[in-house]
Amino acid sequence: MKISIIGVGLIGGSMALKLRTKGIADFIYGIDQSEKHLTEALDLNIIDEKADLESGIKSSDLIILAVPVDAAKKLLPKVLDLVSEHQTVMDAGSTKSGIVNAVKDHPNRARFVAFHPMWGTEDNGPKSAVSESFSGKAGVICNREESAPDALRLVERIAESLDMHLIYMNAESHDVHTAYISHISHITSYALANTVLEKEREEETIFQLASSGFSSTVRLAKSHPEMWVPIFRQNKENVLDVLNEHISQLRKFKSALEKENFEYLGELIANANKIRGILDK
Amino acid sequence: MKISIIGVGLIGGSMALKLRTKGIADFIYGIDQSEKHLTEALDLNIIDEKADLESGIKSSDLIILAVPVDAAKKLLPKVLDLVSEHQTVMDAGSTKSGIVNAVKDHPNRARFVAFHPMWGTEDNGPKSAVSESFSGKAGVICNREESAPDALRLVERIAESLDMHLIYMNAESHDVHTAYISHISHITSYALANTVLEKEREEETIFQLASSGFSSTVRLAKSHPEMWVPIFRQNKENVLDVLNEHISQLRKFKSALEKENFEYLGELIANANKIRGILDK
């Protein structure tokens, strides 16, 4: 199968590596605004050839859109304009309502499968791509009834080749759940980094003392605004809803401390401990 | 050297394993309220013999106090009552002002060295002890001028045997810095877990969708109240100070989203990204 990857960064690059290893991809075109990323992707054997949007799409069975969600929303209608009934388009974005709504009346809507691989790191660019990134992770397909059966089957096969387990939900539910499970973690982590940077003027001390616990909690704060501002913009209502809850949860800790109600503090912590039972299933 | 370890859990157990490997510890007495932990520690070859407080201390050159900080504060004066000028006592607690103040007028104060290894996990008990836990991490010695030179030298040798790099500061500074770098991370993580548990009633969905990012940010929320309530209690003022700053940082994200000021949102994120430069030095 010939595949065009639009956006040869962390996600697109990791998919390319794995699909090549699995023998699914015979030839991979790379399409990217960044010449630097294209050159790196060629050097790393992530892509076979760089291409422009039209020629890459024309020659491909599958087109994978792996760019920030604002760019994806703008680009997808143009991509669908160019495809025939024998081609399939999938995305990899962290928000789903925006992109699904952007093409809901497009004549080629059925050629598109809305996909979200639940994996990412704070790094970006083809150099951070890793073949095994997606193994064991969830791959979410949204609004499957809006895709043609053969397009859906192809994307399911791609997800399985990435060693992901598939989950189906509608785009609205997806955006609610990811606000809880992914987007709020990033805001927390950014705010924590800003807190420490604000309060702790002695950078050397941060560096010297930073324990593995701190590094773990603040890891996501390294994630770039180019990717995350568009996600927060598209999922604004859900993120605000969870953020309000998060602030009110932090206020409970504040109140327990201020009132020296350490029994209540212990209850708050014991409740949080329940996450262990859920995550370590 | 003969060593008594009071509290054969994650920290005490990990120290024991490493000090035995390094040949520093010839014989290790385990002292613990939990018979279960003592039996496990014997089975795991963490300790050579279980002992009661008096007999263990009497037979040891070094006594390591590795219990929750409230218990440590109560226990240390009793331990110092029992030691002679040829014995050294060190602790491993995450707060330092409380314990240092508890013994500041004790006649044997000079035999005590206040120590904090900047490492921990969300697990507890001897079964989670790992020999290499402390390698490359910071070990903080507080108020070194209050310890006898030979006691200080011994604890420095212990920290070096654990492959830690040493930092010296006074107890008050330590408690300020750890509020920033360690304690607030735990509150953030607990509050995030409670947020998700409150909002996301579908536990199965949390489990299925939870990405590595979420798991990383929420990892510390698995840490037990028995250890953390006493830390927050002893470091209340500093933790409240940082918690207030953290809530106000989260409010900036909230305000940027509510006002759809995505340029400001991008600035907040770009500022948080600076943590990369500090942590990845």
UniProtKB/TrEMBL annotation, chains A, B:
One Pfam entry name: PDH_N
Alphabetized GO MF terms: NAD+ binding; prephenate dehydrogenase (NAD+) activity; prephenate dehydrogenase (NADP+) activity
Keywords of this entry: Oxidoreductase
Gene3D superfamilies in alphabetical order: 6-phosphogluconate dehydrogenase C-terminal like domain, NAD(P)-binding Rossmann-like Domain
The keyword Oxidoreductase is assigned to this record: yes
Keyword Oxidoreductase: yes
Gene Ontology terms describing biological process: tyrosine biosynthetic process
Prephenate/arogenate dehydrogenase domain span: 1-281
The protein's name in its UniProt record: Prephenate dehydrogenase
Biological classification of the source: Bacteria, Pseudomonadati, Bacteroidota, Flavobacteriia, Flavobacteriales
